[in-house]
């Protein structure tokens, strides 16, 4: 198994957890921004390392309100705003610059992490070598509207009457009340995951625990953080619902690479492709992985690694 390094770094008043998979000196540093808010990737990073090999020294950050950072700080470190998370991210990148003696990192944002990553690139392009968006968020409300229609079509094609009844009971979706939408999201995600793929998305608690128990970074106390995701990240979930990437001029000062799952029912691939077409960047590429869902890096590890290899060759 590859060598790994764990550390807590003091950033913006709390101890924040970083997991490193170091490679040879001079290898580009890739910072992975996990989804959620609150869904840490560090516990699954060993699987990514097996697939990615020596492409990057990849670093996984348990964000404020997530994973080991939540466990270390308890209520003192609960997230409040997206701006606060962006300040944290800037502090993490500053630490990586000093630790590795570099000026820029490759930023990979998945799902909620793609929201953070996109906003960060607009604010601090000088610190980013390239941006990679996976499960890219464009507009949360438009995404939910599109995802509902796509999920409804899949349920009709499958002839799943239970799913069709649940979707019908939701009424007009997404509702205008943000609190009501947050209450409906778990039901919506459960149905969506039935048409998704992968060991992390919708395959059941047993498979999830099996994956976790083989993680070199896993401790049983980490399960507590999973159980608190929605509660402690509630302010971020509410703020996220109003996010729309189209409100910002699509002018990127860094190369942009999208890697999307063809069957992603959580963040609509059609919306991601449409937005990508509007992007003005020094260099941009888009890869769609056939048959992959929202957690495409786990569902199709070989294909995702190939897409990353193509990105690496452009650096």
TrEMBL record:
Domain named AB hydrolase-1: residues: 30-307
Keywords assigned: Hydrolase
Entry-linked Pfam families: Abhydrolase_6
Origin: domain of life: Bacteria
Record-level Gene Ontology MF annotations: hydrolase activity
Protein name, per record: Alpha/beta hydrolase
Source organism of this protein record: Dysosmobacter acutus
Lineage: Bacteria, Bacillati, Bacillota, Clostridia, Eubacteriales
């Amino acid at each position: 198994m590859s060598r790994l390094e764990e550390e807590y770094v003091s950033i913006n008043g709390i101890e924040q957890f970083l997991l490193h998979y170091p490679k040879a000196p001079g290898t580009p540093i890739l910072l992975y921004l996990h989804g959620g808010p609150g869904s840490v990737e560090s516990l699954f990073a060993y699987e990514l390392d097996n697939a990615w090999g020596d492409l990057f020294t990849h670093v996984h950050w348990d964000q404020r309100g997530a994973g080991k950072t939540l466990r270390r700080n308890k209520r003192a470190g609960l997230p409040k705003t997206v701006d606060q998370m962006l300040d944290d991210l800037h502090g993490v990148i500053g630490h990586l610059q000093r630790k590795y003696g570099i000026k820029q990192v490759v930023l990979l944002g998945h799902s909620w992490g793609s929201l953070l990553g996109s906003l960060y690139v607009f604010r601090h392009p000088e610190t980013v070598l390239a941006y990679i968006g996976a499960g890219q968020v464009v507009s949360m409300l438009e995404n939910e509207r599109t995802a509902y229609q796509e999920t409804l079509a899949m349920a009709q094609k499958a002839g799943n009457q239970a799913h069709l009844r649940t979707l019908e009971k939701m009424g007009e979706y997404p509702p205008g009340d943000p609190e009501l939408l947050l209450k409906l999201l778990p039901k919506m995600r459960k149905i969506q995951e039935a048409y998704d793929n992968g060991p992390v998305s919708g395959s059941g608690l047993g498979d999830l625990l099996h994956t976790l128990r083989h993680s070199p970074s896993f401790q049983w106390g980490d399960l507590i953080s999973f159980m608190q995701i929605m509660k402690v990240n509630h302010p971020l979930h509410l703020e996220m619902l109003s996010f729309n990437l189209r409100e910002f001029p699509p002018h990127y000062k860094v190369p942009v690479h999208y890697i999307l799952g063809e069957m992603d029912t959580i963040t609509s691939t059609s919306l991601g492709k449409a937005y990508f077409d509007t992007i003005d960047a020094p260099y941009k590429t888009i890869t769609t992985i056939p048959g992959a869902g929202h957690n495409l890096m786990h569902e199709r590890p070989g294909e995702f690694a190939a897409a990353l290899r193509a990105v690496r060759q452009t650096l």
